[in-house]
Every structure is written in structure tokens, then in C-alpha cells.
């Protein structure tokens, strides 16, 4: 089954998805037809014409969704995977992986970029979409920081959600949580502000690197690819360079210029952050988590972990 969605101010995903499923939305919500599986979609209209769509579903067949986001009339989009299992998203000819085990992820992309994706059969998902009109984005940029005012928005960028941001968003979406309309909207907007800030944080260390915007976009893709390999081993520099049409030496130099550290140090730090979260949430023993992250030598895992955080994995478990 294929579904086409047009992303445009004045249109909602809710109405278009409901029409494709041949169901009628009721008070900003519709349920997935039993013939296709279980789940629902809920829509929230927020100030500044910002839209939030919240999906929870488990489908008994693959459904391919194509979203068309016109450059002139489209929206800035944030696609958030809260299901903490890998969700693939295609933006034009690039594939991004949203979320990894134990970590929710967000993908930001601007108008003029069409996307597609599909579910796995009988796998539960929870996904959130923020649709932000250009005028609202301009207001956010103006009031954020001086640096952000002059910072061109990348067409596509990926970030993991910090635990406190993920929890705030989940709380705003929980219908069983007693909130009046304005409080719920306020929590959603607060979550959106924190998520947008992830894409303006001081991660780009060298703002005077004079990298071209095309290079920045390719380096953001490399960062996203690295995150898809955190459970296992890192791709080779040659393979990464080939994906973004750079020489290995160019890739290493430009990546360090943008992110302030070599590629494999960035990869290792990201891997260890996931390890810390899994240990804190008691998602397995130290050995199990180390092996899941691709460590065959647990002594090496413990040594790298302690060097990164100043404590051993066992101290996290005890805490």
C-alpha cells in the first residue's frame, strides 16, 4: 500500500492519512482500521500555525508513505522516532536512520525536500511530526542567539534527543496525564524549542572553517551514517568518503573542522553515550551491553568508558 502526503500550511497529515485509510477523523484523532493493524494518529494545532502529529501503530502489512514538501509553500519538518527501534527515512536520495536502541532520534529537514519511508510488519512504532511554517522558524531564529541569526539552516540534520527532552515530549503527549489545553500546548512548544536548539547547539566547533554549505550537508550525512553503526563496528573512512564524494583526506580534515574532533573519536563518544544510557536504564549486564555495542574485549570497553566518563561501567550500574 502506498500513501502520498502533501506537506503544506493549511493541510494536515491527519486528514490525508485518514482519507487513505478510508476512516473519518473525530476530534483530531483517528484509529487504524483493524484490517491493517492497531494504533492511532492524533493531531494538535499549536500557536504560530505549528502542527504536531502523533502516531502509535503496529501494522500487519508494509505501508510506504511518500511526503511531498513544496519549496515555496512547504514546511520545516522535524520527524521524531520515539519507538527506540530503528526507523529508516529517505530524504531525496539519502537514507537516514532515526533512533537506535535506547535512544530516541530527531530528523530536521527544510522545505523543498521530499521524503519516504515504510514500516516493518508487526513491529510497534511511535512517531511524532512537527510541521513548522517558515514564518515561525524565522521568529525562532531571531530570538535564539546572535550566532544562529547568521547561520544558514542545513537542509537535513539528525540529532539524538536528550533524556530530559524526550521525557518532556512524552509527558505532553500522554493523554492520561492531567493537563489543560494551554498547559499541554505549552509543554509541546517547550519540547519543540529544546529540540530545535539541538540543531543550533555549539556542536559545530569551528564557525570560521569557511566550509561550503554543500560540504556541511555531506558531513551531516556522515554523522548520521556513523550513528547507524553504533551497535557494531564503524564503517571505514574510505566507505564514508565514497558516500559523500570526498577523498578520505578531505573527509577527515573537513569533519574535524566542523565538529572539532576526528571521525572515530566522534564515533566512539557517541557509542559510549549509548552505553551509559543503557547501563543507567539497566537494559542488560555490562557484558551484554558491551557485546551489543560491538566490543569483543570487555576490558577495552571498561577502559574507554572510564576515560570518557570518569567512572567505570559497574559504578553506573551501582548508582
Query: β content, as a range?
Result: 15-25%
The separation of the N and C termini measures 48 Å
In the predicted model, the low-confidence regions spanning at least 5 consecutive residues are none
Structural class assignment: alpha+beta
What is the residue-averaged pLDDT? 85
Biggest β-sheet, characterized?
7 strands, antiparallel
Helix count from the secondary structure assignment: 12
- Whole-number radius of gyration? 20 Å
The helix-strand sequence is EHEEEEEEEEEEHHEHHHHHHHHH
Outline the structure in words.
There is one protein chain. By secondary structure, this protein is α+β, with helices and mostly antiparallel strands. 41% of the residues lie in helices and 22% in strands. It has a 7-stranded antiparallel sheet, with helices on both faces. A 5-stranded mixed sheet has the order 1-5-10-7-8. Helix 7 packs across helix 8. The longest helix is centred in the middle third of the chain and has 18 residues. It is globular, with a radius of gyration of 20 Å. The termini are far apart. The model has no long low-confidence stretch (mean pLDDT 85).
